[in-house]
Amino acid sequence: AAASHPPVIGGVGVEMFQRPWTSIGAECGSTLGPAGFSWVLTSPPQEHITGSQWWTSYQPVSYAVDSKLGTEEQFADMVTACKAAGVRVVADAVINHMTAQGAGTGFAGTAFTKYAYPGLYTPKDFHHCALTPDGSIQDYTSRAQVQTCELVGLADLDTGSAHVRTTIAGYLKHLLGLGVAGFRIDAAKHMAAKDVAAIVKLLPAGTPVISEVIRGSGEAVQPEEYTRIGQVFEFQYARELGPQLKAGVLMDPTRIDEVPSKDAAVFVDNHDTERGDASVTYRDGSLYLMANALMLADDYGTPVIYSGYAFSDPDAGAPQGPDGRVIGWDCAGTTAPKATYADGEGVCTEAWKSIAGMIEWRTAAASAPREPGVSQGAAYGFERKGKAVIAANPGSKPETLSVPTSLKDGAYCDVIADGPSMKGCAGGATVLVSDGMARFELDAGQTAAIHIGAEPHN
Ligand code: LM2
Ligand code: CA
């Protein structure tokens, strides 16, 4: 018998990076639910080392749900508020490792030393690889190094051991008990796929997970090994799309070096790539909006929008109060990208009306196939057959583009300019369809999109 596909979370997600539980709970009702997001990915909720940098979240000290992002009670309240708004919560599960820091007291007061975490792990629960001089990963062509040595010096859990597996699963089950729907598996590449599978098997059947396995050509461990467990984040997607936008030359996707659509979670950027090799980020304004709109228009993978904060220091954490808790921010009312952001200011991608408009567009497109694209100068567009059309101009001068479509004649609302259109074009931006062509007039950097549910106005 054919193996059934592992559970998929589906819909459109949003990573709300370093947002306190109270902020996310509020926005589920004000912003995420109304915009049509299906789920929100939180930053790691467990106790972590102290410090102002954001990445302290990725050095677990214990599995107490008490962190700079909030208490367990606040976490549970967030899940309740999000559920009421139709939004599921996915938690970032940091389970490959504990701290790199040698000793200290964690955010919630747990005293630890590296390899000894009270009530959880003792030195025998770690790999202590002897493959490199300092025990850290050096060679990504070595599977043994990648999976049993230390990632940037982080104490590497022996995920082959029964005690470690049940301890991790206990933590994840605790989060499920608080109402989370599924998990991002942080640093999945650094755990053998069979270890991740064994841990997920200890969870209730049907729990969706998305493994973070950064694709690297020539590396020993590849994302395809993890698709029997759940979806994987497909890093190749943004690597193909972003440079095309920057070059002003959009083309139909090749899907080379990408997992099958049903196995993929895709993104324009995330908290690591916006500090690393992402071609397009919040700093690119209209091109960033364009990249996200094209991703939402695509027929590949589960799209994940990213919402972080502006920074010039890549280590800088989100603004914290004197108690070390992140203060948080509320994006309700922020309707478009800004030209510039102050350090620490929320980017608020999830609140842009263009994003809500494109989620509506995506729902209208449903399973309609993506037709081959057409170009005029730098402008490029395509139809999701009979349902929806998008056009984008990443170039530096205006373009006129006609995209073949089977939508009936009329003037359609542009959901990029005006947001969700089911109730009419608020701003009056329309695109004309006649004689089987949608005719777009696009300024430099402009994206426009129409769909069958946007009532023709003529
Ligand atoms: C991930 N996915 O696999 C996260 O998405 C990524 O953000 C995490 O790294 C990483 N894996 C480990 O969970 C971040 C951050 C690193 C940071 C680590 C640990 O990108 O820069 O490393 O969290 O906090 C930091 C320092 C680094 C130092 C390390 C150990 O930046 O310079 O390395 O701590 O002290 C010696
Ligand atoms: Ca490992």
UniProtKB/TrEMBL annotation:
Span of domain Glycosyl hydrolase family 13 catalytic: 11-362
Coiled-coil stretches: none
Alpha-amylase C-terminal domain: from which residue to which, for each copy? Answer: 371-455
Identify one Pfam family in the record.
Alpha-amylase
- Which keywords describe this protein according to UniProt? Calcium, Carbohydrate metabolism, Glycosidase, Hydrolase, Metal-binding, Signal
* Family label: Belongs to the glycosyl hydrolase 13 family.
The name under which this protein is listed is Alpha-amylase
Query: Organism source for this protein?
Result: Microbacterium candidum
